[in-house]
Design goal:
alpha/beta, Rossmann fold, 2 domains, four-stranded parallel β-sheet, 43% helix, Asp/Orn_carbamoyltranf_P-bd, Asp/Orn_carbamoylTrfase_sf, ornithine carbamoyltransferase activity, Ornithine carbamoyltransferase, Asp/Orn_carbamoylTrfase
Amino acid sequence: MVRHVLSLEDLGEAGSWLLVQQARGIPDARSHTDFMTERIAMLLFAQESLPERLCITAAVRQMGGSTIYQGTIGEWREELDQHQHQLMGVINYYVDCMYLYGFPARIWAKRDVEVQFPVINAGSPDGHPAHALADIACMLKYSKDDLKGVRVGWIGCTNGTLFSLIEGMQYFPYGLQVALPPSNDTAPVRDAAARYGVTVDIVETPEQAAGGANYVFAGCRSELDSQDEERWRITGALMDKAAPGAHVLLGSQPIRAIGVERELALSPRSLLLLQAENRLRVHKRLLHWVFLEN
């Protein structure tokens, strides 16, 4: 049976925990293996993202595989919409797995096409399982492997990482408090919490989201206007409202994340480099998971 990872639910609780622990157990995140030798991964990106492309390409290449990248140029999305069955058959002939970026994962999951190769969601508006697992691994490192009682604050607009963090609350015992800018509708967050049977505290201000949090995420700034950008920033003063020793994580790629004060971003409280390291680890373990039955 072909394995796909479009959401954390594809992994389940046991799979999510196992993958996080295995990823953390890789001695050197950049180690080279031959697991993907003679395997080809296709990167189908509906949006540009240099960090995602770098991470996935590095993971596949460091495991001995090859990649084919298709970005936003061309008419391939129209071709995919109109000729799904034919195109999937052709792609299946050439490649061994596919990474999708920028597609709504839930729409893709409902496509009436039997895909014969593993498909991994590398980031979508409604989910980003690899990022969520990598960030959970970061939190485990600084929480003595126990997330009970850990509070996570999200400040900024919604994106796939936030929705996967909400989904992850089914399996990992952290709490989540979310502050969305006035332009951002809270209904999708409430709907996601209801769908997964978890409780998300939706607050009104960045100060409330950071209050008592052990980890503060700089969320997306896609719907912020110029007047709001200064208000919706992660600063040292804001972090003073968080728990002692709280850390900052990026919930989006740097160019799309709300601002983080320079001194804070360069301080030990920022986990940006650890996030990058853990994402490489997680992508390697995802490849093992989709290709190995055990």
